[in-house]
Design goal:
316 residues; alpha+beta; Jelly Rolls; Arc Repressor Mutant, subunit A; disordered N terminus
Length: 316
């Protein structure tokens, strides 16, 4: 497990290890999100037919044979899918997949394996906030757009998935869930490699050297006494430059981002430990339990004790 919340420190440490800040930050959030996926099975879609998914649960589709198009509800354009493609719909919008009548001939069909997934941990909300409507890895793009090697590894991952489905054995359900994890991460990598400059969200912002560094510092020591001035000094920017650059890429201010992440960590500690609320408040940089409780209530509409009690956790 990654480290979560260190003991409270008065000042940020200048010697934090930031050799790969993007990997560290994403790994922490993804680990706390606790993704769990399962397959729904394979379906065949013929010309004139559609595979329809209602709004609700996040899902994904793997195209094995045939050409098709996915269209989100109310979207003006569809997404072309080819054999070997995988597409995630992380926000669970209503959508349909139609066999491409211009490519799929009469008597042929599109074969698709679908699955669903959810984030069961406290990092799930933060992860979702950074994701686009669709995560699509396609075989139709030129090789230059896949410098991270997503297609090569996804093809191997999909082959492993098919093997587990065709020859299930002890632990196959666990294996399939982990394989879905890998497919999701490869899809995120592929999206990051191709996302246009200026795209918003904290995950895309990790690509920016300054903002990636700033996010890594906040995640490395969420309980430190951060201010915009101190954060700007650490990343060698002026206060105004950092504040505007951070808000433009991440979509919120540095201190609001930190406050939200602290609350995600707080909820994780309340649900997974018997630490006193005062101890959690101190570890997250709050000067008093009452200040922490007010911040927690603003985020979850519950006091920390109520939140913990509803989950059946006892206080030490």
């Amino acid at each position: 497990m990654p480290k979560t919340v260190p003991r409270h420190r008065n000042n940020p440490s200048p010697g934090a290890d930031l050799r790969d800040p993007a990997a560290d930050v994403f790994f922490e959030v993804f680990s706390l999100a606790r993704m769990r996926g399962e397959l729904l099975g394979a379906v065949t879609v013929r010309p004139g037919e559609s595979l329809r998914r209602p709004a609700g649960q996040a899902c994904f589709h793997v195209v094995h044979e045939g050409a098709c198009r996915l269209r989100l509800e109310d979207a003006s354009e569809s997404v072309q899918l080819a054999p070997g493609d995988i597409i995630f719909v992380p926000h669970g919008q209503r959508h349909r997949i139609d066999a491409d009548a211009l490519v799929v001939q009469p008597g042929e069909a599109v074969r698709i394996t679908s699955g669903v997934f959810q984030f069961e941990g406290t990092g799930g909300q933060a992860l979702m906030l950074g994701l686009p409507a669709l995560l699509h890895v396609t075989c139709l793009q030129d090789a230059k757009s896949d410098d991270v090697g997503s297609r090569e590894w996804l093809s191997l991952t999909i082959a492993a998935m098919q093997k587990e489905v065709q020859s299930p054995s002890i632990g196959s359900a666990v294996m399939l869930s982990r394989i879905i994890d890998l497919m999701f991460i490869w899809a995120v990598r592929h999206w990051l490699a191709r996302a246009p400059e200026g795209a918003g969200g904290w995950i895309v912002a990790l690509r920016d050297p300054v903002i990636g560094h700033a996010l890594a510092l906040l995640h490395a020591e969420p309980g430190a006494e951060w201010t915009v001035e101190r954060l700007a000094a650490q990343v060698k920017q002026s206060r105004s430059n950092l504040a505007s650059h951070f808000a433009r890429l991440v979509g919120t201010s540095p201190m609001r981002y930190l406050a939200h992440w602290r609350m995600q960590l707080a909820s994780q500690h309340l649900l997974s430990s018997n630490r006193r609320i005062s101890q959690i408040a101190e570890a997250l940089g709050y000067q008093s339990e009452s200040a922490f409780s007010r911040a927690f209530r603003r985020e979850f509409n519950l006091a920390p004790g109520e939140y913990r009690a509803r989950q059946g956790q006892s206080v030490e």
